[in-house]
Amino acid sequence: MIHLSVHPDPEATAAAAADLIADRIAAAQSARGIAHVSLAGGTTPRRAYELLAARLADREHVDWWFGDERCVPPDDPESNYRLVSESLIAGGIPAERVHRVHGEDAPEHAAVAYASELEREVPRNADGMPVLDVALLGLGEDGHTASLFPRDPSLDVTDALAVPVVAVKPPPNRITLTLPALRAARDVIVLATGAGKRDAVTRVLAGPDPATPASLLADANVTLVVDAAAAP
Ligand code: 6PG
After folding, report:
1. Which of 76, 116, 127, 130 is geometrically suited to a Cys-Cys bond with 72, CB 3.0 to 4.6 A?
2. Closest ligand 1 atom, residue 45 Cα
3. Is 146 in the pocket of ligand 1 (CB under 6 A)?
4. Which residues of 50-89 are buried (b: 16+ CB within 10 A; e: fewer)?
């Protein structure tokens, strides 16, 4: 089920996303003592991360994961870990609670290692699938999310939590969580701003289609948080 949440501008959209994530984290902490949250990369979430740190009453009992990472070292400008360290960690989140993907390692090895860390650390449901409390995702103009790109074989993976992919969006080599791992999340929050994302937002709402990978999350509990420019 996809719920659409529209806000006037990028700043209000970032604030709404930060509020929603903080709310879900507080709920997870009171229910289970700790929250597990996967984070999006790209450019759109930076402001939400800057706002999120200040909104957390309990910063100790949250483990932070990544929906995807580029195969670069953690200090590289293209690194999603670097984005998080410059925004969320800089805002006061303990770095030791952030589980980064080792983008500097061989992609296959980094994917397998990250999947095992998820399996070890994140509580699982009856099917043995680790259940993130929140999976925050971005949305590409082509409808990709995390590093799950249109019509890519990674969309059909059902036996792994994380896989290496070669993407059309630079940098090409990436590690991504798979659809089963993202679908298992209690809350999937997709954040998109700007007129360039309107077509993709419209296609996500139109129903599941491998040409629009984000739409394949429709059977999960999804909130699409967008600004007026990106709204259908
Ligand atoms: C990545 C992301 C990717 C991103 C979208 C949107 O590592 O590139 O996880 O899925 O969220 O490409 O990117 P922008 O926010 O920069 O438009």
Report:
1. 76
2. 15
3. yes
4. bbbbebbeebeebbbbbbbbbbbebeeebbbbbbbbebbb
Q: Within 13 Å of residue 222, how many CA atoms lie on the same side as its CB?
A: 25
Average pLDDT, 10 consecutive residues per value, the chain (232 residues): 97 98 98 98 98 95 98 98 96 95 98 98 96 98 98 97 97 98 98 98 98 97 98 98
Separation CA 131–CA 119 (nearest Å): 10
Cα of 40 from ligand 1 centre, angstroms: 7
Nearest CA to 12 among 198, 231, 222, 232? 231
The separation between CA 83 and the C-alpha centre of its own chain, rounded to angstroms, equals 13
Give nearest CA residue, ligand 1 atom 12: 140
**62 CA from centroid of ligand 1 (Å):** 23
Cα torsion at 68, 69, 74, 78 (round to 10°)?
-120
Backbone angles phi, psi at 64, to 5 degrees: -105, 130
What does DSSP assign to residue 201?
H
Distance, in Å, from the CA atom of 8 to the CA atom of 26, rounded to the nearest integer, reads 26
pLDDT in tens, 153-189: 999 999 999 999 999 999 999 999 999 999 999 999 9
Q: Which residue among 169, 182, 198 is best mutated to probe the pocket of ligand 1, counting the most ligand atoms within 8 A of its Cβ?
A: 169
Ligand 1 pocket mutation, candidates 139, 179, 190, 227, criterion most atoms within 8 A of CB: 139
Taking the C-alpha atoms of residue 157 and residue 174, their distance in angstroms, rounded to an integer, is 15
Q: Ligand 1, closest atom to CA 42?
A: 16
Across all residues in the chain, what is the average pLDDT? 97
